[in-house]
Amino acid sequence: MKNMKEFSLIGHNMVPQHILIPENEVNKVLKEYGVDKEQLPKIKLADPVIVEIGAEIGDVIKVIRNSPTAGEAVVYRLVIE
Amino acid sequence: MSAVPKKIKEIQFGLISPKEFRKMSVTRVITADTYDDDGFPIEMGLMDPKMGVIDPGLRCKTCGGRAGECPGHFGHVELIAPVVHVGFAKLIRKILRATCRDCGALLLDSNQKKQYLEQIRMLRKIGQPIEDITNEAFKEARKPKTCQYCGARQLDVKVEKPSTYVEKDGTHEHKLMASDIRSRFEKISNDDIEVMGMDPSKARPEWTIMTVLPVPPVTMRPSITLESGQRSEDDLTHKLVDIIRINQRFQENREAGAPQLIIEDLWELLQYHVTTFIDNAVSGVPPARHRSGRPLKTLSQRLKGKEGRFRGSLSGKRVNFSARTVISPDPNLSISEVGVPLSMAMELSIPVNVTKRNLEEVREFIKRGPDNHPGANYVIRDDNRRLKVTDKNCEELAETLELGWKVDRQLKNGDIILFNRQPSLHRMSIMAHEVKVLPHKTFRLNPAVCPPYNADFDGDEMNMHVLQTEEARAEAKMLIHVQENILSPRFGGPIIGGIHDHISGMYMLTKGDNRVDKNDFLEMLRKSRITEIVEPAGEEDGKPYWTGKNVFSQILPDGLNMTYKALLCENCDTCKKEDCNRDAYVTIRDGQLLSGTIDEKAVGAFKGLILDRIVKDYTPAVALQFIDDMTRLAIRSIMHFGFSFGINDEDIPDEASAQISELLEEAEMRVMDFIIAFNEENLEPLPGRTVAETLELRIMQELGKARDATGEIAGKYLGLDNTAVIMAVSGARGSMLNLTQMAGCVGQQAVRGERIRRGYAGRTLSNFNHGDLGAAAHGFVKSSYKKGLSPTEYFFHAIGGREGLVDTAVRTSQSGYLQRRLVNALQDLEVQYDGTVRDTRGMVVQFKYGEDGVDPMKSDYSRPQTIRRIIEDVIGKEVE
Known about the structure:
The complex is a heterodimer. By secondary structure, chain A is α+β, with helices and mostly antiparallel strands. Chain A is built from 2 helices and 4 strands. Chain A has one domain (17-80): Eukaryotic RPB6 RNA polymerase subunit. In chain A, a hairpin with a 3-residue loop joins strand 3 and strand 4. Chain A is globular and about 45 Å long. Chain B folds into 5 domains: 75-315, no CATH class; 322-485, Barwin-like endoglucanases, CATH 2.40.40; 501-641, RNA polymerase Rpb1, domain 3 (Enzyme I, Chain A, domain 2), CATH 1.10.274; 647-796, Topoisomerase I, Chain A, domain 4 (Orthogonal Bundle), CATH 1.10.132.30; 830-875, no CATH class. The interface between A and B is medium-sized, with 15 and 18 residues.
């Protein structure tokens, strides 16, 4: 394990695109869905992608993934401990 | 909306101490008597009015509530000697073995205790079960022969039956009395209790030995007054009487200084009664019985099992205004109707508020009385008094009827009810129907609504629920009425549609160029909404005639345009379209069937494309009308042409039989060739397979081909006019494979997808040679069902058949449980108006339902074809 080469997850075709939403745009997203931050789906701080993009607890992440029904689906996630 | 609701953090379970029992008790019970001679409850008796009341008119002496208001209050009995609580017998045993018989210390050294305690606390913190750790602690503590703290020698504790503990010292045995155990437990320190996994403030070990017995409130053991005026007590009361009697005798004997032997006997008897009071099904204890010999239903029995308090009373509910009976078919009913037996309609009722507008109408119901359908059963006055309508008072009641009263009117035609068949696996298992009151004793329903309920008429029963409020009826009509459920949200196609004879009927009517005269034309459409005769298709022998396609076109809505390939399409390389020789190319223009045959793909449940188009392009009401017309037309059509099937429909000419046996012989020869090649090691293995596997595969393949070939021969000789063939190709029932097996050859029997290999060593049955690899020796059935199977074939067929049977049994139970778990997990998720999917706390589960926000019910079988269809509709021809 220790000799495993480190590589970036981002760009791997099985890893959907994760985008950190800037602080000032978070409210726009929350308003769009009429939710509190806590009502969003969660993602752990320890999640490899979160580690890589360097988000912090309380940040909101936008995930764009391929969907068999819609082609592309957007999901927002709150970073938690 | 935004506030996330509170969560239950923990639930604390513990033991109740004798002190608490006394504190919550409203009275001490000292006498086993219940009522005095005047029929009043005796004070400090088992029916003391302080513990609640059950007789109407009396008031509870504790809370002042009347019967029904007072929830009841616990009393208590002071037991003369402590007894073991059976529910804790195992725990008591464990503790006895793990603690010092002298000083009560847990027999572990302090380091071990500390270690276990730490592990327990850690597991508690992360919410994991602690049983593994405590069990290990108990196991370790059992080992020492002497106490590490006081040096006392430890003795083996043996358990006899459920709750007798015996100490063994060499050959000497000494019985531990409950009081000895209790005093030993009292010595255990709080720290030790924690290591045993208990919380000393909530559950001290000595509380598992009872010194005070709580007496349940009168309200949970009500006595019943029989017709004879005699009182009959509840089982629990009977048991309590026993306990109190023994308790008294015990006390008298002890005070009189009776010998130890008698005292011990009485003690054991008291233990028996308390044990059976708690649980009357403990192994090793004979169950306490009623005078009649019936075992008593005591506390445990009330809670346990299917009919117990949890599964029977709390999770399961019973409802009023419901009915259940056998179902039978009636193709003349609309699919939205249900035939209700008259006797049920007269019993079930709907409450009607009497208003200015319906006063006269309601008065009429009352006047008819309860025995004259549609009448009324009850009148509820504005003071909420409920008056039964009888033959005698109905005239008088009708006269005195006032505004603001309510009347329970009998069920009549057109009422909306809910209809249900278990298992209710999807939402279409409960649908709203309109009542049609009919004679006889079964529910009648149109066979076209069988698919959503998965019902048939081999004795199935269904339930009906009568809605009691206007709101419920309005909601049912708008949301779960049959016509709103023609489309299934599971696959976006119709789930209600023609079945069996409907499809055969439509097929025979529309196939090719059938001609019917005016009489038949009228007869077939008689029950539909069609009222006008269209222009005839032509004249024959001076008489006008119509084609079957004309007849079917009458029930199609105007303006319908469709083009598709029917089920019987053979997917030729080049489609001849309208000139198809099987008449499989369906074209509908402006509601007229121009070419093609109507079969399962057109009007069948699950597949019906025409149905699907009508629901989506027109309205559910039009679709309902179409299904009604279609089923009626189909039934009349099948009666017009005549349709039957018998054993001689499987007859094939001798030349066909000869062809089949020749074919099978050839196949067997080829199999033999494979085997010879295999034995001579000449067989070329397939990639990734061993030679033996290759042989098996090749043989299976060869025999499969041979069976299909026999089917083709049989099909050819049976011809397209054969009723079995009609059913198979139209999709009404059965398949060509079924026909092959009946007329041609049953084929290879398989277990787990392989030829049958089990049986004796080296052979399947004793009449084959060892190592025979031939077709017959491994379950190939050459005969057809019609011809009959040979004895060996019969055995192989039974083997294959049994596997199928076991498979279905296992699959249904497994998939049922899987679905239950899924439903439990998803049941309160909801699609919000903004298209998001959320749970009850408002937490977002999906930002858009299904990620695309599409309602599968309204999609075209979940395929993106809407746009293509619209273009085709507009330009009026097919688009590539």
